[in-house]
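Morning, I've got a small favour to ask if you have a moment. I owe you a coffee for this, so here goes:
>
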Amino acid sequence: MLKQSTNKWMRLSHLALIPMLAVFVFACRSSNNNAPAQDAVVPAPEAATPQTNTEAIIPETTQESIPYEVVEKKPTFNGGSVSEFAQWTNSQLKYPDSAIEDAVQGRILISFTVSADGYITDAKVLRGVSPELDAEALRVVSSCTEKWEPGMQDGKPVPVSITFPIIFQLR
């Protein structure tokens, strides 16, 4: 009752959108067509922009040196799993005196790569606790000169990235 009725011409104005949408769809369809229109100018092949080969820009050595995170066969230390490396690491760790005095303890995450030839490279601290404990954990992992059996992918040895926790705990 209180609502005003819409003018009939206003209702019909919405129908005017239908031809405009049809023209728009036709224009989009013809612009995606692979065949050029009759009035279009096609550049000569000499004027075409040369294509660049992205594989020529990236050296192959960089592609091979990127470490894997998931492989068919994981690297092994002394013929065992990563737990063998954990035992070796625990035997090499020395709790820093300053950390004992300050009662600093916690879990450090170390990331390193077992290269295709079986040695540890690129060791770094991902998450540390204190500078003293971080340095000790990094020292121990970096000092590992024992050769690992490298990870295998498609029957070939490949570099593998490993994230390894080291826990310092006072007793």
The radius of gyration is 33 Å. Residues 66-168 form a domain with the TolA/TonB C-terminal domain fold (CATH 3.30.2420). The longest strand covers residues 106-114.
